[in-house]
Amino acid sequence: MNKPTLANLYRLATRQGSTLPDVDTLVAVAHGERPADAERIVAEIAQSALQSDLLHFTRALEPASDVLGAEIAATFGTRRAHARGYAAPARVAAGRWHNVRRVGFGLAAALIAAVAMWSQHKPAPALLANAAPASDRIFAAFDGHTAAKQQTDEIFNGAFRGDVIFRAD
Amino acid sequence: MVLDPVLQNRLQQLLADYGAKVRALIEGHGLGQYGIDPADIEQEVRIRLWKALERDRSAAFHTSYIQRVVLSTVIDAIRAARSRPVEPLPEGEGEGSEAMLATAAGPERTAGGTQDFDRVAACLAELPQRRREAVALYLQGFSLREIGELGGTSEEAARKLLDRGLQTLRARLALMGLGELYE
User: Fold this and answer.
1) Quick one: closest CA in A to B136, which residue?
2) Does A46 fall in a domain?
3) Which chain B residues are Cβ-neighbours of A42 within 8 angstroms?
4) How far is Cα B116 from Cα B112, in angstroms, rounded to an integer?
5) What is the pTM of this model?
6) Beta carbons of A26 and B58 less than 8 Å apart
7) How far apart are CA A6 and CA A12, in angstroms?
8) pLDDT in tens, B7-66
């Protein structure tokens, strides 16, 4: 293999004295992004064994970092799920109380609606006043002229006949 | 912020497993050559991620966030290794010590290695910019797909750039008497 000889020489020659890369830039490049000054950055990488090695390393790090991030998220997610499990009874009780209140509010609303409907169908006061003399027989009986004339009291009527027991004849 | 013991154990286990993978990857990619200790990195990554978890439990640990934590740990360690003073050699070792330093410097420090590289660099410099970049990335170990991504082109376009670049480089190296690099 002829390439490694040239590659080894090149890498050995570019190993020393290279500048240290910016962390964010190198991670971005490792993820396939192209920064604004990509040409300068790529030129530096090409001329630096250190930067090249760090880029190789960062890329190789990706799968393990991905797994770690997912496992940490899962660990915290599991814990949150446990917390939800313990909190569930309290939430059920609260839900029951909430249902009771809901039924109460419903009944109250139905009652108010019924009263409102009854109020709408009830005759207005003016109509009531006009209709009363004709329909209300209670107060009609107190009509002095008609009642006295039509239905005289039999007791005090002039045709009253005294007690026959005390009659002389 | 206090985590319940079951959760704490689970997270510590996850971080321990991940730390072991990070360590294996550091060793596998030869990052130890830059003066860092994989075991130290593993420990530091676990500490940083744990602190991040304690700071914000609801934080979504995206892949890129975890990668940034690891990468910043590695880069900090390399920076620290670079600024670390070279340990003084024991007295009285004279020429032997110099020979040891010369060996430790590697072939790129040797006269022959430097000379060869200078000639290779001269050949590379004569290539058109896009071909030169494709060849350089290839020599750094990137695949055709990666070269295409980095260059903002397709894999097929990257292959053409690389083929033409390598062909030209090989011819020029042969003219300079460095054809053995390809043999």
Assistant:
1) A46
2) yes
3) 133, 137, 150-151
4) 6
5) 0.67
6) no
7) 10
8) 889 999 999 999 999 999 999 999 999 999 999 999 999 999 999 988 876 657 889 999
